[in-house]
Amino acid sequence: MSKGVIGVSTFQDVDFFTDLSLVNDPYPYLEYLRSLGPVSPLPHRNVVAVTGHEEAVAVYNDAKTFSSVNAVTGPIPDLPFKPHGEDIGPQIDQFRPQFPMGGQVVTLDGAPHAAIRSLIMRLFTPSRLKENEQFLLRLSDELIDQFIERGHCELLSDYANPYATLVIANLLGVPEEHHKTLRETLAVVPAQVDEDPARAAAVPLMSLLGFFREYVTERLREPRKDVLSELATAKLPDGSTPTLEEIIGLAGFLFGAGQDTTARLLSASMRILGERVDLQELLRRERHRIPDLIEEVLRIDPPVKCNFRLARVPTTLGGVDIQPGTTVAIFIGAANRDPRRFERPTEILLDRPRAKEHLGFSRGAHACAGAPLARTEVRISIERLLDRLADIRISEEKHGPPERRRYSYDPTYLLRGLEQLHMEFTRGQGSR
Question: Which residues pair with 309 in a beta bridge?
Fold first, then answer.
């Protein structure tokens, strides 16, 4: 695998899914792909890249043409079958158990997906999110208390990761004595350098399923007033009861996904505020603009790099013919910077019209059900960090001076997230 800086002239030979030189800054490569058109075949792995916003939305909204069976890892591993015929839907159904996490809600299609998703939508209601806000405020202050006297912190380990983990743990009803173990389990990041990226991507979730088997089984015996009990005793729209494995898988997925996206989004937001004193001061004066910043961060540096679909039938997208069995890779960071859709796409504009039309939380049947919770968590975190910390800045000792910043990102083609974010600050007037 290449570890050096790649020039544009050699981008045509790059394998996005293995080349580590694209990890820290994938955006020049995404601009190269855009120069080929909004949809373009990649040279490796039978993948078609989608960089156009309109074309990405079309894929998300067409579940009949594009299956989500490979949503988790895309083209790795190879398909467990050789596609044949004009409709490979029956083959997808037959071999679904052989796809990474092929039975989880994120990879299901059609009626099975709709049934399981109906359970999720009951959990993230506006009333429940509102009830949870006092816990979010209290937790934020408790975590800030642990590092505020130092005048510096590593945001991921000191705040973002424990905050996101404990919020979703509290929502689901995970016993407090298990919080530390769950945090350690979720610290495993699916690695691009792993000999089997598909296996690496599944490791944290598979570990979580062991925990949640115990929790769900206990709730079946003795239901409580928490989300896990609701899942354990839920009925599907047709009146049937989900299997134990379906409930366990859903609980584990909600926990992992709920923790991961929030921590990445928060760290990306605070990196920008640490770099942009003007934005930091603006938001101190006008707190109602914090949600605008969050939407722009979701657009310009989303926590998920790629979403994947598998073409079920022959189709044409953006003038490109796509055959059954082709992996369609939606490059979210590229679609979110599509100049056909977003004016001045590389800039953060807090007054951007139709700002929420970005694809940071996907779209269509698989749009992120936990998006309202993630937005609330990040909003409250930024509010409290700005309240209690003044003169927030990036550590030059750890990340270099402004003109030569050094940031390292998780080595995975799936997710976009800082490995560390060292920040310095003074105690603010809003400190307790």
Answer: 328
Condensed to tens digits (0 to 9), the pLDDT of residues 211-240 reads: 778 888 888 888 887 888 888 888 888 888
- pLDDT per residue as tens digits for the range 27-85: 999 999 999 999 999 999 999 999 999 999 999 999 999 999 999 899 999 999 999 99
pLDDT for 193 beyond 60: no
b/e map of 214-227 (b: 16 or more CB within 10 Å)?
A: ebbeebeeeeeebb
Unique residue bearing structure tokens 């979010």: 136
Kindly tell me the burial class for residue 374, based on how many C-beta atoms sit within 10 Å of its own C-beta (0-12, 13-18, 19 or more): buried
- In sequence order, the β-bridge partners of residue 153 are 423
Number of H helices, E strands in the chain: 17, 10
Q: Which of 141, 178, 191, 169 is nearest to 259 (CA)?
A: 169
In CATH terms, the fold of domain 8-427 is Cytochrome p450 (1.10.630)
Q: How far is CA 75 from CA 25, 329, 388, in A?
A: 22, 9, 45
